[in-house]
Amino acid sequence: MRTVQSRAERQAQTRSELIDAAEALFTAKGFQATSLDAVAEAAGYTKGAVYSNFASKEDLFFAVYEGRVDRHLAHVGELFSQPADAGQAILHVVAAVGDLRRRRADGWMAVFLEFWTHVLRHPEHRERFAELHDRAVEPFASALERFAAQQGITLSIPAHQLATAMFAMENGIGLERLTDPDAVDADLPVRLVQLIFEGLVREAGRRGT
Fold first, then answer.
1. Structural domains present in the chain
2. What is the per-residue pLDDT for 106?
């Protein structure tokens, strides 16, 4: 028997299809070059449907970003749970995320950096962007705290700051790869994190903590 969708279900489906269309266009063409008219047409709706679900193009991009953060958290959450050793888990995640970025090569890194720059020029969006970015960083901060506990050391840099720096390093390497795919070795992020771990342990030993 055919089930008739409720109004809420139809609205949720419309919103989901608009987000999917926007993600495809943003990653293919960029944030500025993608119009809401194009998103509506690609999803099979009117522009009015876009505005009935999203306040602005920025709001639509945030919906795309939120979805990607949710998928990222599900992915790394599963990966972090595999090795019991927190240091090995972090290295495993860094390697897996880097491999996923290389295999996808779907334009997300470019549009993400474009939108980040856009946010810097529009302070009204910074808090929302920072909150989403913080959600993505948090699992790494928690893993670094586990690493310190397992090593019996006190981190010389707060875990969240260190995790943010590691994210910045990976984003920077990703940007270099966009410019020149052969600029760095694929395993460079993992080797850098290994060096960070070694430095943290040595520093704690010098401080006796």
1. 1-54 (1.10.10.60), 57-207 (1.10.357.10)
2. 66
Give percent of the chain with pLDDT exceeding 90: 69
Q: Which residues of 8-45 are buried (b: 16+ CB within 10 A; e: fewer)?
A: eeeeeebbeebbebbbbbbbeeebeebebeebbebbeb
Q: Tokens 């880097």 — which residue?
A: 98
> Quick check: pTM over 0.70?
yes
Annotate 164-190 with DSSP letters as a single string: HHHHHHHHHHHHHHHH-TTSS-TTHHH
Separation CA 156–CA 203 (nearest Å): 7
Q: How far apart are CA 137 and CA 165, in angstroms?
A: 10
Q: What is the pLDDT of residue 1?
A: 47
- CA–CA dist 164, 140 (Å, integer): 9
- Give the HSE-up count for residue 28: Cα atoms under 13 Å, Cβ half-sphere: 11
> What DSSP character marks residue 152?
T
CA atoms 124, 74, 97, 35: torsion sign: negative
Tokens of 128: 């929302």
Convert the pLDDT of each residue in 125-150 to its tens digit. Answer: 999 999 999 999 999 999 999 999 99
Inform me whether the pLDDT recorded for 56 exceeds 50.
yes
